[in-house]
């Protein structure tokens, strides 16, 4: 009886430690963002006075809204392009027999092995040559380097497991490859699309190094860079209140996205098409 | 509505030749069953006809028009898959209408055809359901419905009943037979590994083995006059008794002596020079009957008696091979009894040492 209680208590103690470690930094960011003035430098664990001054200041001064828009645009386009290319590539990699398919798959995977810093210089030259330096396309282009490999891999694996007969039935019905992908496979692939899409979105949303390197003007920056480069009133002042408010604002879209799509991630849709 | 002609069809996967030169003519409106053991190439052959695989060499023609290079949809055929292969995210209605929508048919036209097919297959109440809400038999009906609405020249069935339980299979088999009658003129190619289904459904059977056609004919032709040992053993259950024999006299008054048996006259056209050589003698278990006369072909002690009610199976050993007899009713024979077995002249088969049947000299 006592052993059972102890075990239960230990279990919940462990759970609370994990939750605290995971959530506390964000909680503290929210807490800080709601403080103002010198209260910022007092250590509190419970909100005392709530002030939205930092939020107002972040949203009204500087280019933060514009940066938020940039991030949203870039991450959305990256997800859309990655999924489009990923699905079409996955179809050919999983369903069409051709020489060198395995090699191609390994090559695609190996692209994601290079550290960002290793490709930075070459990529910089490439972006300058393409004339897209300091524009959203530069970041979209750069982000595809790390979103495409895992998108293609996850979707290829998923598509390989879809029953071949369904595709053959569609071929007999006169479907072109594009119709097969868009009308037959896509609806069955929602869980994989949502998962990979979310991961790609988060990766693009959080990315810092490329965003720092390939933009130069404050209106072209994405939020992670913008927040890092926030300047205070004086040279030696770090505007913690604004930074925390901005961080909270930046986190919200991700949380919303995950909550909206989590049902889709869990749901399996292939039931009943083939035997079993 | 459409005839199908295969000429010298071959198919290799890499270095492995799966289909080794097949010639076949299927007349318009005919129900032809491809049957054979696993791995004989029957499904591959069907996929070649469907266009899901490309032939390595040879030609496939529908109504005299070579379709080798046409994509499946333009060959004017429809296919029903073993695993149903329904689109899981579409309702029954959309499953059936999918091909027609791609083809750009008029909406009213699609609706009429889908509803007609649903009526025939008695699936009208399920039109708004998803495949996962249907039973196996219902799903297979939807798969057949999806094929019917395409109004195909040739219907292809790939082991459509293999996933159903035994009782449902019999019902669906009868329905498919009825369906064939109601769609006068539609050619059907049907792949199955179960010989009972093949015998009951087919106008003609093409028996395949190791990528070749062993024999094509009506079910009764295959049963009564098998072209070779493979066909003889494959058709019929239990399999035909086949024992080595010596050809005692040929040309006129043909007689053979099966191993462990007595010399017997056969109605086979065996050339004179074959006299004295080795051959193979065959007789179906159901053609054998008990005899006490001197006309017994095989005589021996009963090893096993199996009483199945309508028939009794008895196993006797005379030479190296056990002989099985399938006797009508309860014959009252006991284990250990000594019995003689005989069969009518027209039921005896003789094959040469390579397994090819000698032609029959009777009707």
Number of helices of chain A: 12
Proportion of residues in extended strands of chain B? 25-35%
CATH class of the largest domain in chain B: Alpha Beta
How far apart are the first and last residues' alpha carbons of chain B, in Å? 33 Å
CATH fold category name of the largest domain in chain B: Rossmann fold
Count of individual beta strands of chain B: 20
- How many runs of DSSP E, i.e. beta strands of chain A? 0
CATH structural architecture of the largest domain in chain B: 3-Layer(aba) Sandwich
Mean pLDDT over all positions of chain A: 87
Concise description?
The complex is a heterodimer of chains A (276) and B (363). Chain A is mainly alpha-helical and 276 residues long.
Structural commentary:
The complex is a heterodimer of chains A (276) and B (363). Chain A is mainly alpha-helical and 276 residues long. Chain A has two domains: 1-51, no CATH class; 64-271, MetI-like (MetI-like fold, Orthogonal Bundle). Helix content of chain A is 72%, strand content 0%. Chain A is built from twelve helices and no strands. The longest helix of chain A has 32 residues, at 2-33. By secondary structure, chain B is α+β, with helices and mostly antiparallel strands. Chain B folds into three domains: 1-76 and 154-237, Rossmann fold (3-Layer(aba) Sandwich), CATH 3.40.50.300; 85-151, no CATH class; 247-352, OB fold (Dihydrolipoamide Acetyltransferase, E2P) (Beta Barrel), CATH 2.40.50. Chain B has helices at residues 42-50, 92-102, 107-121, 136-149, 166-182, 195-201, 219-224, 229-234, and strands spanning 4-13, 16-26, 31-35, 57-62, 65-66, 77-80, 154-158, 187-192, 204-209, 212-217, 241-249, 255-258, 264-265, 278-283, 289-291, 298-307, 311-317, 322-328, 338-342, 348-352. In chain B, helix 2 packs across helix 3 (107-121), helix 2 runs parallel beside helix 4 (136-149) and helix 3 (107-121) crosses helix 4. The longest helix of chain B is centred in the middle third of the chain and has 17 residues, at 166-182. Chain B is elongated and about 75 Å long. The chains are: A mainly alpha (276), B alpha+beta (363). Chain A binds chain B through residues 163, 165-166, 168-175, 179, 183-184, 187-188, 269-275, and chain B through 50, 52, 71-74, 77-79, 81-89, 98-99, 102-103, 130-134, 136, 139, 146, 150, 163.
């Amino acid at each position: 009886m006592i052993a059972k209680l102890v075990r239960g208590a230990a279990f919940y103690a462990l759970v609370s430690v994990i939750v605290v470690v995971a959530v506390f930094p964000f909680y503290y960011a929210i807490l800080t963002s709601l403080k103002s003035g010198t209260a910022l430098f007092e250590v509190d664990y419970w909100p005392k006075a709530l002030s939205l001054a930092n939020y107002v200041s972040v949203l009204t001064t500087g280019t933060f809204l514009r940066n938020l828009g940039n991030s949203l645009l870039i991450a959305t386009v990256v997800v859309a392009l990655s999924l489009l290319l990923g699905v079409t590539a996955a179809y050919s990699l999983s369903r069409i027999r051709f020489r060198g398919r395995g090699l191609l798959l390994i090559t695609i995977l190996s692209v994601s092995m290079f550290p960002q810093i290793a490709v930075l210089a070459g990529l910089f030259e490439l972006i300058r040559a393409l004339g897209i330096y300091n524009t959203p396309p530069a970041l979209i282009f750069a982000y595809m380097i790390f979103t495409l490999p895992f998108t293609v891999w996850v979707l290829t694996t998923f598509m390989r497991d879809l029953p071949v007969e369904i595709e053959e039935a569609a071929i007999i019905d006169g479907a072109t490859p594009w119709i097969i992908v868009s009308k037959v496979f896509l609806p069955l692939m929602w869980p994989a699309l949502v998962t990979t899409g979310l991961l790609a979105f988060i990766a693009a949303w959080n990315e810092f190094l490329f965003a720092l390197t390939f933009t130069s003007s404050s209106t072209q920056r994405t939020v992670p860079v913008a927040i890092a480069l926030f300047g205070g009133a004086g040279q030696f002042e770090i505007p913690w209140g604004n930074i925390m408010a901005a961080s909270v604002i930046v986190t919200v879209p991700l949380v919303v996205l995950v909550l909206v799509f989590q049902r889709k991630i869990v749901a399996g849709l292939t039931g009943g098409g083939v035997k079993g | 509505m459409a005839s199908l002609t295969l000429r010298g069809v071959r198919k290799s996967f890499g270095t492995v030749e799966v289909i080794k030169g097949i010639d076949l003519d299927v007349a318009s409106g005919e129900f032809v069953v491809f049957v054979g053991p696993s791995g004989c190439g029957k499904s591959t052959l069907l996929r070649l006809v469907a266009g899901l695989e490309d032939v390595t060499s040879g030609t496939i023609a529908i109504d005299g028009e070579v379709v080798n290079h046409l994509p499946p949809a333009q060959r004017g055929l429809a296919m029903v898959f073993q695993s149903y292969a329904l689109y899981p995210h579409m309702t029954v209605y959309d499953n059936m209408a999918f091909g027609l929508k791609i083809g750009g048919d008029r909406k009213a036209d699609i609706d009429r055809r889908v509803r007609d097919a649903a009526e025939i297959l008695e699936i009208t109440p399920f039109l708004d359901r998803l495949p996962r809400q249907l039973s196996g038999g219902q799903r297979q009906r939807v798969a057949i419905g999806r094929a019917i609405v395409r109004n195909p020249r040739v219907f292809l069935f790939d082991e459509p009943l293999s996933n159903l339980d035994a009782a449902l299979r019999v019902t669906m088999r009868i329905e498919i037979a009825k369906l064939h009658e109601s769609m006068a003129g539609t050619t059907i190619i049907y792949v199955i590994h179960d010989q009972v289904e093949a015998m009951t459904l087919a106008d003609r059977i093409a028996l395949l083995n190791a990528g070749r056609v062993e024999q094509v004919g009506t079910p009764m032709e295959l049963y009564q006059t098998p072209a070779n040992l493979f066909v003889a053993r494959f058709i019929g259950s239990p399999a035909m008794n086949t024992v080595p024999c010596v050809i005692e006299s040929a040309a006129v008054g043909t007689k053979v002596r099966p191993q462990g048996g007595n010399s017997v006259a056969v109605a086979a056209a065996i050339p004179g020079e074959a006299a004295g050589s080795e051959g193979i003698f065959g007789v179906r278990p159901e053609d054998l009957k008990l005899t006490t006369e001197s006309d017994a072909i095989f005589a021996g002690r009963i090893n096993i008696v199996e009483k199945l009610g309508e028939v009794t199976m008895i196993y006797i050993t005379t030479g190296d091979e056990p002989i099985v007899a399938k006797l009508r009713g309860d014959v009252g024979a006991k284990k250990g009894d000594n019995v003689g077995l005989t069969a009518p002249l027209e039921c005896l088969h003789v094959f040469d040492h390579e397994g090819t049947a000698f032609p029959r000299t009777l009707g």
